Amino acid sequence: MDLQSLCKVILVSALISLVCHPCSVTAGDIVHDDDSAPKKPGCENDFVLVKVQTWVNGIEDAEFVGVGARFGTAIVSKEKNANQRRLVLSDPRDCCSHPKNKLDNDVIMVDRGHCKFTTKANNAQAANASALLIINNQKVLYKMVCDPDETDLDIHIPTVMLPQDAGVSLEKMLTSNSSVSVQLYSPKRPLVDIAEVFLWLMAVGTILCASYWSAWSAREAAIEHDKLLKDALDEIPDTRHVGSGGLLNINTRSAVLFVVFASCFLIMLYKLMAYWFVELLVVLFCIGGVEGLQTCLVALLSRWFKRIAESYVKIPLFGAVSYLTLAVSPFCIAFAVVWAVYRNVSFAWIGQDILGIALIITVLQIVHVPNLKVGTVLLSCAFLYDIFWVFVSKKLFHESVMIVVARGDKSGQDGIPMLLKIPRMFDPWGGYSIIGFGDILLPGLLVAFSLRYDWLANKSLRAGYFVWAMIAYGLGLLVTYVALNLMDGHGQPALLYIVPFTLGTFLTLGRKRGDLRILWTSGEPERPCPHIRLEHQTIEELNDEK
């Protein structure tokens, strides 16, 4: 294996450990009902995000996002039903005593602290306020609940908490002698957004393309293998590695070590998640994306430019490189650099998805599962890995490590780039529907294996395993999105649903058809040696002549 292939294998191995992230929806996930804050009469609202739209001197200005309290009147969901009210700064600022302001159905803004949330709400209500905005002392949102001893609550105004930075902005508006008014409403998310449909098609289409490329390469290698054997009757060369240059076959040990390595890397991401570390991940992603895009383009263009694709030049450290690769590389590098520079603009997700899909297809071309045994070990370990870091890690770290890393909560950015994402088109809260590369790559390894086996065994689509594996993957991912919506947008580990569908279908069909032993051990159909078959044919011809 030359240095270029070795670097490619090392890079994809490292990237795989980064990409097992759950399907999720970003935009400051709604803080919903919580068992740690039980409901009781007068304190039974669901926790919902609230939009606070501002107007300064009658001109529409900034919009802020807060969270509604467990107590008080429920906030209207439609903008047209929300009243626009004047905003007033409380005096005293904490509103722990009756405000000195003369309020006329105004919205009053107060600081957090010094007394209960319900005390502030009661004082604001008594002063004829129409709503209460409480400014947190941190740049995060906080669930406002009732104390256990509060049993007789009669609060009829909505109460919303805003983060500290929103409070600073609102205070500047008020202290500049401007007339400031606000409108509070909490729009509901659609049950299904079309972004999830496109994301599903992207994931399924990526595995479909990668599987056919992998199977085609495997069949070409098998044909070349048979040809070499037929041309060498007297002297059989060692052809075990013909057509396998640059491929990485996973074994059971590496499948288990992958989960250990990925877990260690995830912890490092969680602990070191900062601006500089995200920038480092962006560089790694660009390197992988350039390699993936270059590989895909060279494979595609070589059909029309065979001459330059088959002409090579030796480059130090990289060995023989085709002229077509040299021609394509500048475009791929420029594409990745432009994306990295402008990755924060609204349409940058397109470039990220192109680089990501190219990388995934390339990895599925390079990395192979040799048999069903290895595939079962790999997916089972990934299944446990996903569940542990999404759900169990909450007990150890007081938050879901996987979701925090995927969203980039501690980095001040939109999270790591090893994701496919599409903006939620009809969601009033905006944000993205995302899926981690690992939720495509890991099941994709098994699906690609199924098509390689089908082609080598000369099975039809109906009699083979590929169609059923693809259907199982598609259904597993569909169930993931259903669960995501049922869980009100909370991140879900996609492999929790995909692995049972995909692996279970493969194992069940293999056992039913009697192929399970071959699939489990060799992973390839038994084929007679062409050399021996040719020798038998020669002996039969000699016998006929006699």
TrEMBL record:
Main subcellular localisation: membrane
Domain of life: Eukaryota
Transmembrane parts of this sequence: 197-215, 255-276, 282-305, 317-341, 347-367, 374-392, 429-451, 463-484, 490-509
Gene Ontology terms, MF aspect: aspartic endopeptidase activity, intramembrane cleaving
Signal sequence segment: 1-27
InterPro entries, alphabetized: PA_dom_sf (IPR046450), PA_domain (IPR003137), Peptidase_A22B_SPP (IPR007369), Preselin/SPP (IPR006639)
One annotated GO biological process: membrane protein proteolysis
Record flagged with keyword ATP-binding: no
Record keywords, A-Z: Endosome, Glycoprotein, Hydrolase, Membrane, Protease, Signal, Transmembrane, Transmembrane helix
Record-annotated PA domain positions: 87-169
Function: Intramembrane-cleaving aspartic protease (I-CLiP) that cleaves type II membrane signal peptides in the hydrophobic plane of the membrane.
Family: Belongs to the peptidase A22B family.
Name used for this protein in its record: PA domain-containing protein
Source species taxonomy: Eukaryota, Viridiplantae, Streptophyta, Embryophyta, Tracheophyta
